[in-house]
Design a protein that fits this description.
heterodimer; A: 113 residues; mainly beta; seven-stranded mixed sheet; four-stranded antiparallel sheet; globular; B: 112 residues; six-stranded mixed sheet; five-stranded antiparallel sheet; 11 strands
């Protein structure tokens, strides 16, 4: 079966712009989470959605937002990009969360110049 | 706040050796613990998922154990191969927050 699909794979943006990243979970998975990975901070939790509802949000500024659609696909948006937003953004899906484990996508590499 | 620590940060071993990677967490109230592998520039590949009620899981040459009372998990890799070279990450899923808390990882190099 198809895995977690993230698009695009690579992005280069200029400071001040905004960006939207997309994630299609494994068919039947209703929980989608987003993580930011940087060399200095490692993997940090951004937010989690289940059935279109955000259940938790990590410690990131309001410039980071997300949403989940009725088909479980999810998008995250970063507005007013800063150089420090350059990172690998990873999406993970799970049947429902807690006890089912997570499957990750290949990520979107965002570079802000 | 859940803190996850992985030791060592880096490890280099010759092919064929058995090795142990360590993971510790501060909050024992976890639902499960998951081990991942990450190749350079790639996403995470799930290796093993241990539920809070379990003590270990095995998959091929990999065995992971979980001791909630001491806040520790170990990943045992038997007969290591050069293809095992990657960064190994452990992540604890806590009772609240619907989030994985990751360690910084162990970078493993297996030399032929």
């Amino acid at each position: 079966k198809a895995g977690v699909t993230q698009t695009p794979r690579y992005l280069i943006k200029t400071r001040g712009q905004q960006v939207t990243l997309s994630c299609s979970p494994i068919s039947g998975h209703r929980s989608v989470s987003w993580y930011q990975q940087t060399p200095g901070q490692g993997l940090q939790f951004l937010f989690e959605y289940f059935s279109e509802t955000q259940r938790n949000k990590g410690n990131f500024p309001g410039r980071f937002s997300g949403r989940q659609f009725s088909n479980s696909r999810s998008e995250m948006n970063v507005s007013t990009l800063e150089l420090g937003d350059s990172a690998l953004y990873l999406c993970a899906s799970s049947l429902a969360g807690e006890n089912y484990g997570y499957t990750f996508g290949s990520g979107t590499r965002l570079t802000v110049v | 706040k859940q803190e996850v620590t992985q030791i060592p940060a880096a490890l280099s071993v010759p092919e064929g050796e058995n090795l142990v990677l360590n993971c510790s967490f501060t909050d024992s109230a976890i639902y499960n613990l998951q081990w991942f592998r990450q190749d350079p520039g790639k996403g995470l590949t799930s290796l093993l998922l241990i539920q809070s009620s379990q003590r270990e899981q095995t998959s091929g040459r990999l065995n992971a154990s979980l001791d909630k009372s001491s806040g520790r998990s170990t990943l045992y890799i038997a007969a290591s191969q050069p293809g095992d070279s990657a960064t190994y990450l452990c992540a604890a899923f806590s009772n609240s927050g619907y989030a994985l808390n990751f360690g910084k990882g162990t970078s493993l190099l297996v030399t032929p």
